[in-house]
Amino acid sequence: MNHFMTSIFLILTLQFTGVSSSLALADDSIFVIAGKNSSLPQITATDLKLIYLGQKSSLAGKPILIGQNESIQESFYATFTDKDMTAINQLWGIVIFTGKTDPPKNLKSDSEVIKFVNDDENAIGYVSKQPEGDSARVLAIQKSTTTTSK
Amino acid sequence: MDLWKNIVFSCRLFIFCLSLATALATSVASELQINGFGTVGAAASDDQSGYAYDIRNKINYYHDTKFGLNFSSRLGQKWSWASQLLVKRWVDDTFDDNKVKLDWALVSYHPWSDLSFRVGKQKLPLWLFSDYAEVGFLYPWVRPIQEVYGITPLNTITGASLNYIKQLGTVNFELNAVAGDSKVVEDRNGGIVLLANVKRAQLLTFSLIHENFLLKANLGKSDAVDVTQRTGSSSYVFPQLKYTFASLGAKVDYQTHFVWTEIVTTHVEHLSNMNGLYLSYGKKFGIFSPHITYARYWSHNYKSVRADTTTSTATTTVRVLSYVPERKNKQQSLILGLVTKITDRSNFKLEWQYIDADGYSRDTTERSTTTGGVTTTVTSHGNTKERGFFDAHPRGEVNLFSATINFIF
């Protein structure tokens, strides 16, 4: 009985802490991109942080659209904002459920992000690999120092 | 009766979920953004008086349970729209009605990146988190602190707003101005229904926003509030009252510590003055975030005439003056809560609240009879105990236990 209870406790603990999740993206880079025809300038880490925390909605005076790659978002936010996903979801939840500004567009893969930024010249997003050829402009690169769950 | 309510509630929930599925299917083929939130809760106290309308000494599954669905989309570069549907136990003259209602709907225009205008039915950012008080996942308590958020039922306004943001380094200064009308219907559950037509309400909000803190100050007024108070078959109308309100709130989230605090005051001319405050501190330990809150509410009514009737016969004139009850009402609470993270978008909350409600109310009626030029006046009083946010005076201090699961998607 004790073994059974211990097993249940361990399973629940692993589920809650995410230890059972696979590890990915360790030491990978994250590329912040805009469309290939976009005139948006290079972006600083501070501006990027403010944009993805919902505190800045323009670059070079232009209102921007932001996309987020769900497959690497945990790693992205940990790298650029030092915040966990619960805090991020609460920050964006306030923006969304008060109708204040446009929330980030949730995208599932690098290719969806590349399509998204090319559909609007004022859109930015982030991908896990350097975009091939001239499919997109890279605005910033940051070495990911954390792990993420898939 | 409870079974019937359950059936009706389940049907409405089913229709709501069906709408959600349809909307999600539609969104695949469009740029429509769909998000949602929900809370499933249970609460009970150790007193038979109803707290915050209907929490008594029997488990209440309705009070905190609610579901919302949020839609938003861009309309070109400078325009966008957003709306929110909500199903919950609405506290109005259809008290037990769980129907789906349009919570708010607005169109935004962004001529420049730091300026936007919004038109439509919008949440009034009256207190620190009034505009997202329905979304339990976004704050630490099971429900907004009644000592502050129970003061006024005014939470949406139909009109226009202006929002200006100025970035100062890593801090944003935000100015929000809102103007419009609102209609409030509130069932006070003690047999009193309050109807208020709020006209020409204006609110100015100043905020300093940083990733680790928020400081917010509000100042507002309404030039004309027509309040009708219905008690049974009788009805009192207070026309053209001036309503003013102000608040100061702060939220700090630094490393593993979090603090929320707020102080608010409202003043209804010739009728009442209501004040509230709270201070809350919490600390994160992994997935657990215990917190402690002290809250206080105090109010008083002014002595003013609410009814003046005169009846005359050939020889006698009778004038009856009925006054708004002179009233002092207060409540204080201690809340111990625990928020447990389930996933990045959901949590489980447990809460114990210790409530002490006190005060008194004194009715005054003057009956003047004039016969043959001689007037005699008889004044009568009726004293009752006040009750904080209960529908009747509780037997003593009250313990209230609550649990909720909250999520967003």
Give a verbal description of the structure:
The complex is a heterodimer of chains A (150) and B (409). By secondary structure, chain A is an alpha/beta fold. Chain A has helices at residues 2-17, 45-52, 73-81, 85-97, 110-119; strands at residues 23-24, 29-35, 58-59, 62-63, 65-69, 105-107, 123-127, 136-143, 148-149. In chain A, a hairpin with a 2-residue loop joins β3 and β4 (62-63). Chain A starts with a helix and ends with a strand. The relative contact order of chain A is 0.28. Mean pLDDT of chain A is 78; it is low at 4-27. Chain B is mainly beta. Chain B has one domain: Porin (Beta Barrel). Chain B has two helices and 19 strands. Chain B has helices spanning 2-28, 146-149; strands spanning 33-45, 66-75, 79-88, 100-112, 115-123, 156-168, 171-187, 192-209, 213-231, 234-254, 257-268, 272-283, 288-301, 305-312, 316-323, 326-343, 346-371, 374-385, 398-408. Chain B has a 16-stranded antiparallel beta barrel. In chain B, β8 (192-209) and β9 form a beta hairpin. The A-B interface holds A 16-17, 46, 49-50, 53, 55-58, 61-63, 65, 81, 83-90, 93-94, 96-103, 105, 122 and B 33, 35, 37, 68, 70, 72, 74, 77-78, 80, 82-84, 104, 106, 108, 110, 112-114, 116, 118, 122-123, 125, 131-132, 134-135, 137-138, 163, 165, 167, 170, 172, 209, 211, 253, 286-287, 341-342, 344-345, 347, 408.
Provide a concise account of the structure shown:
The complex is a heterodimer of chains A (150) and B (409). Chain A has 150 residues and is an alpha/beta fold. Chain A has helices at 2-17, 45-52, 73-81, 85-97, 110-119, and strands spanning 23-24, 29-35, 58-59, 62-63, 65-69, 105-107, 123-127, 136-143, 148-149.
Number of alpha- plus pi-helical segments of chain B: 2
- Give the name of the CATH superfamily of chain A: Periplasmic binding protein-like II
Question: Hey, roughly how much beta strand do the residues of chain B contain?
Answer: over 45%
User: What is the CATH topology descriptor of chain A?
Assistant: D-Maltodextrin-Binding Protein, domain 2
The second-level CATH architecture of chain B is Beta Barrel
Helical residue percent of chain B?
Answer: under 10%
Mean pLDDT of chain A: 78
CATH topology of chain B: Porin
From the N-terminal CA to the C-terminal CA of chain A, the straight-line distance is 33 Å
Query: Strand arrangement, largest sheet of chain B?
Result: 1-2-3-4-5-6-7-8-9-10-11-12-13-16-17-19
CATH class of chain A: Alpha Beta
* Mean pLDDT over all positions of chain B: 86
**Major sheet size, sense and barrel closure of chain A:** 5 strands, mixed
**Termini separation of chain B:** 33 Å
Structural shape of chain B: globular
Order of helical and strand elements of chain A:
HEEHEEEHHEHEEE
* CATH-level-2 architecture of chain A: 3-Layer(aba) Sandwich
The strand count of chain B comes to 19
Interface with most residues: A-B, 35 and 47 residues
Determine the fraction of residues in helical runs of chain A and give it as a percent range.
25-40%
* Rg of chain B (C-alpha, Å): 24 Å
